[in-house]
Amino acid sequence: MIDENWEKEAKEHQKQYKYMLERGNKNKILKALPDLHEEAFEKIDCLECANCCKNYSPRFKQPDIKRIAKSLRIKEGDLVANYLTIDSEGDYVSRTKPCPFLAEDNTCNIYDDRPSDCARYPYTDEDVLYKRVPLTLKNSLSCPITHHVLEKLLEIEGGKKS
Fold it and tell me: Do 60 and 72 touch, CB atoms closer than 8 A?
């Protein structure tokens, strides 16, 4: 179940998150992530939210494009032409928001073949969390799981201030 105040709290704690991620004990953080990640996914149902699919696009890398096109039984060029565009960083991303593969019930129509960015999101079980601080901070404002993990890390690091 998603806490209704998580977005407000995430906004209020951005500086604390940033400080912890940049200056916290990286080994302690990395060691804690697998359990915190599991705990967050047990408590929070992504299907209640789907903010990631509604507001952002993953990068569609060439292996993703190949796999998804095969799954949809269409040509790779048709997948690119119909669903993707190239962003400012030169990556293929979804042409529309929400993601064209997001169903009305917040499930994914290509879940088994989804892009690797989707499978890894919200990166709460890997070192991306503290290696790409701006991305983590952005994710904390849109993903209740990222927020949950960061809040628990603040408690572990002893940096949580009421």
Answer: no
Cα–Cα distance for residue pair 58/85, rounded to 1 Å? 12
C-alpha pair distances (Å), 1 with each of 6, 86, 143, 146: 11, 35, 13, 14
Taking the mean position of all CA atoms in its chain, how far away is CA 134?
Answer: 13
Reported as a single tens digit per residue, the pLDDT across 108-140 is 999 999 999 999 999 999 999 999 999 999 999
Is the CB of residue 107 less than 8 Å from the CB of residue 53? Answer: no
pLDDT in tens, 39-93: 999 999 999 999 999 999 999 999 999 999 999 999 999 999 999 999 999 999 9
What is the domain partition of the chain in residue ranges?
A: 6-52+122-157, 59-120
In contact, 117 and 68? CB cutoff 8 Å? no
